[in-house]
Every structure is written in structure tokens, then in C-alpha cells.
Amino acid sequence: MINIKSLTKKQIIQYFIDNGEKTFKGQQVFKWLWQKHISDFDEMTDVSKKLREKLKSEFVIEYPKILKKQTSKDGTIKYLLELNDGVAIETVWIPSGRRNTICISTQAGCAMGCKFCYTAKQEFIRNLTFFEIVDQIIVIIKDLNKRPTNIVTMGMGEPLKNLENLEEAIGIINDETGIGIAARKITVSTVGFIPGIYELAKYPKQIKLAVSLNATNDKIRNYIMPINKIYPIEKLLYSVKHFIEIKGKRVTFEYVLIKGVNDSKDDADKLIELTKDIECKINIIPLNVSINDVDSLFKPIDNETVEKFTKWMMKGHKAVTVRKSKGRDIDAACGELKGRESLKNY
Ligand code: SAH
Question: Closest by alpha carbon to 195, among 165, 236, 166, 154?
């Protein structure tokens, strides 16, 4: 039977119209599913018994299963979720002061092959559907009985390689009768897939864009992020400027700081130069090396280098932040998600 959540809002409304009902009946059902997170059709108290029986004969309501849940000392919680076809993905709850962020996956595995990223070590399995993207948030809301304030697509996968599902998912996350999170609290983070940036610029919602720049010249970026061979820095920055022009919003450049690779004074100067006419914030992310990765290609970076690099940047740039590493003790930090292995360990 079909999972009713696999129907888009339009399709749900159409289903009811086709069955001789008014538009609002479909809207009510959408709300039961995406705002109230019910598990049983009989909870739809404003839907007639007859209609509920019809729904039951055609659909089921399914959620991903929590396979594993690990809580860090700092409150970060990493979930390993099993989708209906048995594929496992990871989603992370990150509390920080008044802000509670959920970091969602958009694909199972990833095909981008960034050298420093743990998701890249497992092969690409498949795109997540729009409802699997949203369900990650619902499962956590139900489990913790808390609401997130922010959503970031910094889990597994490249969101702009799954744009149709991503946009449908953002629609539900943002919808007042869905999860109801303001678009400006939703950040799409991309490896720098340029055609996706142009497409996302056309998407009407005021979501935020973060671009994982991570290097200041094509030689190094080609090495650590192979996608750069197809979409090099200059063209990438051009597409980002276009995005800002259309949306009227500043973007974030993420810069994973890797010892001996992109952490020199020259890199800092070049980064300032590259971004000088772009309305942006720079988010420095000290490279996370998994506690289990003893023969890692890259070594962890020391605080002193991070501070030095940050100071250079501050001197030349308006807005720089350094990301505190959350969930290190449970390998839930940025880029450390690796569902396949976690599933094996489970
Ligand atoms: N594909 C998207 C989103 C997933 S990665 C993207 O590339 O943006 C989310 C962020 O984690 C990116 O900025 C990426 O550069 C960073 N990241 C990946 N591996 C990391 C690691 N080992 N340490 C720190 N950050 C990492």
C-alpha cells in the first residue's frame, strides 16, 4: 500500500477533489500528517468515518524507524534512521543556546567525493524523497517533544543534486500547516553545484544559501573537492553573486580549515580578496577527524592555527565565525556522518 505522505500537498488536495470533496478536506488531511504527525487515520477527527475507511483501504501512514540514538556530552543527538526500503541515514539535533538546529540529510550516501568528508567514503545510494527529507525532522520532534528553530542541509548528500525533492520538502517545512519554520531559518548548504545554484535562485522562498568553498585556488580545490574540476571557483563565485542579486540576501561561505592544505596567510589573503565584492559571511570550520579514523589523510588542526587564520580573516573581512565542533564524542560533527558504517556497528 502507498504511504500517504508520498503525496505532495497538491496531490492530496487533488485526491479529495477527485473523490467529490472540497479543497479544504485535503488541506485538513495535510495538516494532520505534517503538523500533527498522526500515525493512525482514526486520529483525523474532522474527517468522516467513511472517508477515513476509504483512506485506510488505499494508504498507510509510515515513518522512518530510529535504529540508533547517541547523545553527546554537549547535548547533540545523532540519530540513525531506517527508511522504508531499509536504507539508513543520519540526522543530527544540535542544541546551542536558544537555537536548536536539525541537520538533515538529502541523499543516502554522496557522489561528490570530497576528500575530507566521511559521507564520501561510502558510495552514493539514492536521493531521498521529499517526505523522507521532512520526516527526519518529524521523527526528532516526536522523539524529543521539542521543536527546532533552524534547519540546515548539512547531513549526508548534496542537496542541489536532489533539487526537486528538496524544494518540495522545504515547502512542507515552511508551510504554516506543515512544520511552520520561517524560510530564513532554513539553510541549504552546497558543495558548489553551479546549475543547482541558478535553479535555487529561481525558487521563490527566502531560504539561505551556504557554499562550501574550502579552498582559494583551483589546484587545491580540485584536489579536495573534485567537483571543482567541472565547476571552478571563478564560475562558482559568479553564480553566488547572481543568487545574491536575485534574493537580496547575503550568503555564507563555509571554509573547512585543513592543516597544511588551506590554512596559510596567503590563503587568508586570497579568501578576503575573492569575497571582497560579495555580501557574505565566512564560517570557518576546523576539520573534524573522526575519533575512529586513525590513518586519516588529514590531521586534526590545532587551535592556534584556527585562531591565527581567524584573526587574519577578521582584519580583512566584515563577518567571520568559527564553528564550534558539536557532538565530537559521538562522531556527529560536521562531515562525520557515515551511516553505512554506523549501520554495520549497530
Ligand atoms: N554537500 C553539502 C552539504 C553536506 S556537507 C556541502 O558540501 O555543503 C556539510 C558541510 O560539512 C560542508 O561545508 C562540508 O565542507 C563540511 N565537511 C565535510 N566533511 C567535514 C569534516 N571532516 N570536517 C569539517 N567539516 C566537514
Answer: 236
